[in-house]
Amino acid sequence: MYILTIGSHSSLQILHGAKKEGFRTVLVTPEKRVKFYTQFAFIDEVYGYKNEDEAVEYINSFANNGILIPHGSLVEYIGPERVNKIKTKIFGNRNLFEWEANQKKKMSLLKNAKIKIPEQFENPEDIDRLVIVKLPGAKGGRGYFIARNKNEAKEGLNKLLEQKMIRSIDEVIIQEYVVGVPMYFQFFYSIILNRLEIIGIDIRYETNIDGLRRLPPDIKVDPTLVVIGNIPAVARESLLPTVYEYGENFVNTVKELVPPGMIGPFCLESVVTDQGDIVVFEFSGRIVAGTNLYVNGSPYSWLYWDEPMSAGRRIGREIKLAINSNKLDQVLT
Length: 333
Ligand code: AMP
Prior knowledge:
The protein has eleven helices and 13 strands. It is of the alpha/beta class. The strands form three sheets. A five-stranded parallel beta sheet has the order 3-2-1-4-5, with helices on both faces. Strands 11-10-9-12-13 form a five-stranded antiparallel beta sheet. A three-stranded antiparallel beta sheet has the order 7-6-8, with helices on one face. The longest helix is centred in the last third of the chain and has 18 residues, at 240-257. It is globular, with a radius of gyration of 20 Å. The site of adenosine monophosphate has 17 residues, from β6, β8, β10, β12 and β13.
């Protein structure tokens, strides 16, 4: 059996883990990255594509003997229409992609799960506090902006329209900007073991907002929120039971709203306030790049496995367990 993924995001970790679990590994990447990826011995085949159609064709040549592991760059690189043409089975629930791409659907799912979310403003006229304006899709925060009031928000929205970054303001989501510390809670839901695991926590490192503290306070620079890396975190242990409950609610709600439900890794991106509230401002229904920190296991994955268990390896392990118990179809869509 071949495990495939697109060369970006968390592909190194995914294929490193797949190899550890005994699979053949294939990386599909834009041609200019072939040299970079060829240096890793755990990748059996590196395929460089010239265009996205070629990539899909190659992925589909593994329809009978391969599994594609999706990550945050799959839809961004290949495009949503082409992803629909992928015939090779995907580990996880491919029906979630559409929910993830649509900011409004995304937040409604969290709300349904009774998870605390930031206040949302449908109409810029109603804005009465500090807000963040977000663009659709997983663009790593590009184009997002923070506005102090409704006038600043309207100005920013007009700019996005002028620059054709959006076609209408219905595409954006306007959220209360929650002040606190960010913590991104990484989970793995195992169908095969029938359990939810907390597999790690990270904080995204974003430019330029995370660099502003280096400046004297009188120098005013507008913050941007472009993700460039991740830093590790552990949470106060007393926060974990609530975090876990959020994860369980999420799994139950996905099961109800997005059949066949949650399979494998997901993440609840949160801000923890000084009142101890955990406010979730988005979710990822697949592996997040913050798990790259834990290629040798995280402080949490050790508690479940007592062996180095990255999210990538956990995916490989789940596939292996599924194959061994004749349940592979339950973890693929
Ligand atoms: P997102 O694409 O939703 O993950 O947002 C990108 C970044 O914006 C996050 O990593 C946070 O730093 C920040 N952010 C997003 N939403 C909020 C919010 N409601 N309150 C505070 N910070 C936020």
